Amino acid sequence: MKKSPALKTYAIAYLIFLYAPIALLPIFAFNDSRVIAFPLSGFTTSWFVEMWNDQQLWIAFKNSLTIAVSSALFSTLLGIFGARATTRYKFPGKGGILGLIMLPLVLPEMIMSMALLVILIGMGVKLSIFTIIIGHVLICTPYAVAILSSAFQSLDRSLEEAAYDLGETPASTFRLIILPLVMPGIISSLLIAFTISLDEFIVAYFLGGNQTVLSVYIFGQFRFPQRVPSIMALGFVLVCLSILLLTIAEYFRRRGIAKTGAKDTGGFL
Amino acid sequence: MTTEKPTMIEFRDVQKYYGDYHALRGITATIRAGEFFSLLGPSGCGKTTLLRTIAGFEDISSGAVLIDGKHMDGVPANKRPTNMVFQSYAIFPHLTVAENVGFGLRRDPRPASEKAKAVAEALEMVGLKGYGARAAHALSGGQRQRVALARALILKPKVLLLDEPLSALDKKMREQMQMELIKLQRQVGITFILVTHDQEEALVMSDRIAVMFEGQIAQLADPETLYRRPNSRQVADFIGTMNFLPAKILSENGVVEVEAQGFGRLTLAADQVMGSKTTEGTSIGFRPETATILFDGQVATDRETLATIEEVVYYGDMTYYDVRLDGTEKPMRLSMRNVFGRPVLDIGTRTRVGWSPGALVLFR
Ligand SMILES: Nc1ncnc2c1ncn2[C@@H]1O[C@H](COP(=O)(O)OP(=O)(O)O)[C@@H](O)[C@H]1O
Ligand SMILES: [Mg+2]
Q1: Is residue B306 located within the same domain as residue B330?
Q2: What domain range is B170 assigned to?
Q3: Predicted local distance difference test score (pLDDT) of residue B280
């Protein structure tokens, strides 16, 4: 295929548009001025110290982490059940049920949050981290089902039968054969769900009550100009963490592929 | 010829429906202990389904499957004394060769050192000595198949089930594996049940063959009987090549008098008469090698008929001639072994064809 120069220019412009703002984060995170503007005035690490000493930030961070880990675990677990059911069994209403599971993918989060808020308040449930987790599991589960379905789909049915044939029970077959072979999918699902939950704003804002999470806290801080540099520092830390996370995910994915000799199809990440 | 061995597998009127689809239509048969048994038939006739009812992967709709005298109704696959070599081999890709082969020994109470020895022995038996530490996914097709065999045989099952195990291999490899499988079966003495759509493979390997069409067993016999005395035109067509000529029955009392196109009046013994429900009407059948072209000076050992050569296909060791016997409409295929110094005849040559009534089969 011949590369068109117009397409190349477009691709480069696209990448700059996408990533240049992120490149500004480290620049201003280390800039010795409370004003976010060029020219730069000098180098400092004091914004990181300020960030580190921000007690509110720590609370929000811990909340976010708790929510993201719980949502990732629950939605992946539900995803395993869902993917297994849809790829292995036939049952009436399968298409409809699957459609309902996948619905949050296209439903505006705002609508979902409002609906949940009305119901939870109506039921007298106190808004907290727990209610955010409920919302996030709802959002993350479709992704988990999609990722895991493709992992389960590519599993040769006769591998399972071979294990039964050699004396294993359905439970031990799941543990010894199926689980190891879909592990790359499970790791992908955990990471995707974790990431989605971590930077989710609307549900967290609606259902959080007086509990603040990272995304909501950061947004709130932009009202105070003098706080912005330390938020830049926080952003820089988050970018580094994301890169680290993606590297780990890719490492596990490649290792899974190398171990089973499957063809590398580029992966989800 | 063979001494009667005890029964290993018994099918009693086995019926299997997939929804409305009638996949197995009353299978009744027995497979003997220590036998190399093949299920042969065209794709979709239910061979795999029948094999899977033995393994316990497929519930039957009615009837019974017995293994070594025991009803298998409600016995799950992991509790049956059978092991299977899957068509895809189903090698666990995340395990090593040794872990694959030793997989079935997980619940074996023997110490690890003894199990390792058993694995090494099994690998040696299939010609993979020293391959234990390799990653299973890095093996070639032939090697995977050997791992699958070792993995199944290490448990010393009463019955080994093989679903088209050779179909993924190239011709040379396939022929080599056929010989190895035969040897292996003699060595271990386990009942082998092979599913194949390749009639040659079934003939070469089996003690007995069940020919299946559309969920039914059409004929169950040893290879020679199947070849020489197929009980229907369908079986005759599926196994090797058979020529057919229209015929009419004149009389029958113990022996059968027939008038066959090209062959004239014949007397056939009762065992040459196959009562099958053909829609083609009564016909005489013979195999390509049972009639011969008579070269100058050769005399027929039995009967002869004049014919014209219409097509010649030269194969090196063999020549196939399509000849039209005088008084017939369509050409018959004859296969002749080439002999040094004897010419290959040309199309259009008039020749004599020697044949013998004993080699004919009557389908009615
Ligand atoms: N799980 C199934 N559901 C529905 N139909 C099936 C199933 N398995 C097999 N069949 C049908 O049963 C018939 C026999 O299949 P099979 O035993 O696999 O044939 P083969 O002789 O080629 O091994 C085929 O027509 C196939 O489509
Ligand atoms: Mg089959």
Answers
A1: yes
A2: 7-228
A3: 67
Render pLDDT for B82-129 as a digit per residue (tens, 0 to 9): 999 999 999 999 999 999 999 999 988 999 999 999 999 999 999 999
Gap between the Cα atoms of B158 and A171, Å rounded: 25
pLDDT of residue A160: 94
Q: Does B140 touch chain A (CB under 8 A)?
A: no
Q: Among B195, B190, B224, which Cα is nearest to B207's?
A: B224
Minimum distance, in Å, between the CA of residue A180 and any CA atom of chain B: 8
For Cα atoms B147, B148, B151, give the angle at the middle one, nearest 5 degrees.
85
Contact assessment for residue B23 and residue B46, using Cβ atoms and an 8 Å cutoff? yes
Judge contact between B288 and B333, C-beta under 8 A.
yes
Euclidean distance between CA atoms B34 and B206, whole angstroms: 11
- φ, ψ dihedrals at B304, nearest 5°: -140, 155
End-to-end, the C-alpha distance of chain B in Å comes to 29
Distance from CA of B358 to the nearest CA of A (A): 48
For residue A136, the model assigns a pLDDT of 94
Pair of tokens at residue B140: 């070639």
What are the structure tokens assigned to A64, written together? 């976010």
Let me know whether B25 and B161 are in one domain.
Answer: yes
DSSP assignments along A64-107, one per residue:
HHHHHHHHHHHHHHHHHHHHHHHHH---TTHHHHHHHHHGGGTS
Single-letter amino acid, residue A104: P
- Hey, where are the domains in chain A? 55-260
Question: Which residues, given as ranges, of chain A have pLDDT below 70?
Answer: 1-3, 259-269
CATH class entry, domain A55-260: mainly alpha
Q: Identify the segments of chain B with pLDDT beneath 70.
A: 1-3, 276-280
List all residues whose CB is within 6 A of at least one atom of ligand 1.
Answer: B 18, 21, 23, 41, 43-49
Per-residue pLDDT at A262: 62
Report the amino acid identity of residue B142. G
Domain endpoint, select from B228, B257, B286: B228
Q: What is the pLDDT of residue A268?
A: 46
Q: What is the pLDDT of residue B173?
A: 87
Contact A165 B87 (CB under 8 A): no
A144 within 8 A of A226, measured Cβ to Cβ:
no
- Give, in order, the Cα–Cα distances in Å from B127 to each of A111, A248, B88, B94, B144: 65, 41, 20, 22, 12
pLDDT at B279: 61
Q: Does residue B234 form part of some domain? A: no
The model's pTM? 0.84
Distance B128 CA to ligand 2 centre (A): 27
A158 at interface of B, judged by CB pairs closer than 8 A: yes
Q: Determine the distance separating the centroid of ligand 2 and the alpha carbon of A180, expressed in angstroms.
A: 28
